[in-house]
Amino acid sequence: MQMFTKKKIEVVVEAVYVPRVVEAAKNAGAKGYTVLPNLQGSGIHGDRRGSGLSGAFENVMVICIVDASIVGAVMAAIKEAIGDAIGVLYTSDVEVLRDEHF
After folding, report:
1. SS3 for 52?
2. Does residue 102 fall inside a structural domain?
3. Where are the alpha helices (H) located in 1-102, listed in sequence order?
């Protein structure tokens, strides 16, 4: 079975930033994304938990898998879109089965 190396971009931000992150990623060439809701954790800004009824300030993760040729552009666009918001943005190597999807 042939595998293809791609880059996985993961962004942890407050839910209110998801539209900005998604638009920036797509405009920079990402073909799709996945959002994982209601993340909890702890870091330099302290503990993060769910934020009540609206969910606007809960942490979520946006995941995009892209070709290595555009990973820098996508990450730069996302960084600009979230500005000084509290968040984490990182990338890692992944292997995928369907090259044409990414």
Report:
1. coil
2. no
3. 18-27, 71-82
Q: Is residue 22 part of a domain?
A: yes
Q: How far apart are CA 5 and CA 79, in angstroms?
A: 23
Question: What are the tens digits of pLDDT across the range 16-67?
Answer: 999 999 999 999 999 999 999 987 766 676 666 665 555 667 899 999 999 9
We report the CATH number of the domain holding residue 16 as: 3.30.70.120
Which residue segment(s) compose the domain that 64 sits in? 4-96
Identify whether 101 is part of a domain.
Answer: no
What average pLDDT score do residues 71-83 get? 97
**Residue 50 maps to a domain:** yes
Are 63 and 33 a contacting pair, CB within 8 Å?
yes
pLDDT of residue 47: 64
pTM for the structure as a whole: 0.86
Q: Are 96 and 102 in contact (CB under 8 A)?
A: yes
Coil/strand/helix, residue 16? helix
